[in-house]
Amino acid sequence: MTRRTVGAIADGGFKVLLAAGCIAGAAPLGRLLGAPVWLMVVSGVALLISGGIEIGYTRSRSMRTYTRLMIAYDSGWVLAALAGLLTAWRGGSAGGEVWMGYQTAAPLVFAALLVAADPVGKADPD
């Protein structure tokens, strides 16, 4: 098992843990972030799906594909966090909703792109 594979599994595992936190703590986290409870739960479900797919596809997808998708996801995560912070600093109340909205949409896009990617050995070998 390569370091990249371990990293992909860890990334998926982190998403699963974050999902559990979002679902289990939907009400208090929603209050803290200023996001509705339903958004916290839906985000948790999206993260759970994405994390499970990410872990499940480690043997059948290229680590190059994983790396590209993780870089894109994490870059968007940083931008969404900055947008949420800027919104909050400027007195807006939607900062948490911006960040949780990203946490809802981006994992599903990540999972869909990973599922649609060519299997290892077909087009993008490690």
TrEMBL record:
Domain of life: Bacteria
Sorted UniProt keywords: Membrane, Transmembrane, Transmembrane helix
Record-annotated membrane-spanning stretches: 12-29, 35-57, 69-89, 101-120
Protein's recorded name: Uncharacterized protein
